[in-house]
Design a protein that fits this description.
It contains eight helices and ten strands. By secondary structure, the protein is an alpha/beta fold. The chain has one domain: Class I glutamine amidotransferase (GATase) domain (Rossmann fold), CATH 3.40.50.880. It has an eight-stranded mixed sheet with strand order 2-1-3-4-10-9-8-6, sandwiched between helices. Strands 5-7 form a two-stranded antiparallel ribbon. The protein starts with a strand and ends with a helix.
């Protein structure tokens, strides 16, 4: 039985669609809740796959959230060992920071279902299903492209929306793992952020009704394709 550990920063921002894809491959998924569960460095380094999930804090807020320092150190060690790792939103930013790349607030928040622009490499990658399908954006920070990484996707407000480091490390600033049926938990949990950004929950519900199922279907194809290469 292959194992996967997901580092979770918010209970409702879980592995989503990834869980079913892993189960179909016979992979056992367990969670570590950052800031609550202690980081077992040995277990996080030894697991076959590490998934680092999203959250509303910044990687640079180590004073307010001291656990980030230990988390980044573990990711740095796992990167050095060239072991499979998937980072989503905050997770991608943490991978970038572990490689020495700058992470800072972007020019604007991106929240909602909207397209990405795939690079030539992105169109040839596991993200190819998103050539004409929207993703779920939910972030305000941007990252510089880490050393040795290949840019896979961008938007006007965020030049580095996705990157790969070889076949085993993938960082996504956006969400393709979220089942649209669970979006209501995000609308409740992120109510203050939505209010500050002056984004109506009704708008996001309308977007999810229009494109959520297509995003989820493309997400399953993309994630399954990446898993096939990363865990081979």
């Amino acid at each position: 039985m292959t194992t996967c550990v997901a580092i979770r920063h918010l209970v409702f921002e879980d592995a989503g669609l990834i869980e079913g894809l892993l189960a179909a491959r016979g992979v056992r998924l367990s969670y570590v809740d950052a800031g609550i569960d202690p980081f077992d460095a040995a277990a996080l380094l030894e697991t076959d796959l590490l998934v680092v999930l999203g959250g509303p804090i910044g990687v640079y807020e180590t004073g307010a959230y001291p656990f980030l320092t230990g988390e980044i150190d573990i990711l740095r060690r796992r990167l050095a060992a060239r072991k499979p790792m998937l980072g989503i939103c905050l997770g991608a930013q943490l991978i970038a920071a572990a490689l020495g790349a700058r992470v800072a607030p972007g020019p604007a928040k991106e929240i909602g279902y909207a397209p990405i622009e795939l690079t030539t490499e992105g169109r040839q990658s596991a993200l190819a299903p998103f050539a004409d399908v929207d993703v779920l954006h939910w972030h305000g920070d941007n990252l510089d492209l880490p050393p040795g990484a290949t840019r896979l996707a961008s938007t006007k407000a965020c030049p580095n929306q996705a990157f790969a480091i070889g076949p085993r490390v993938l960082g996504l600033q956006f969400h393709i793992e979220t089942d649209p049926h669970s979006l209501e938990r995000w609308l409740i949990g992120h109510a203050c952020e939505l209010a500050q950004a002056k984004i109506s929950p009704s708008l996001l519900r309308e977007q999810a009704a229009r494109t959520g199922q297509a995003t989820a279907a493309a997400g399953r194809r993309a994630l399954d394709g990446w898993l096939a290469g990363a865990m081979s």
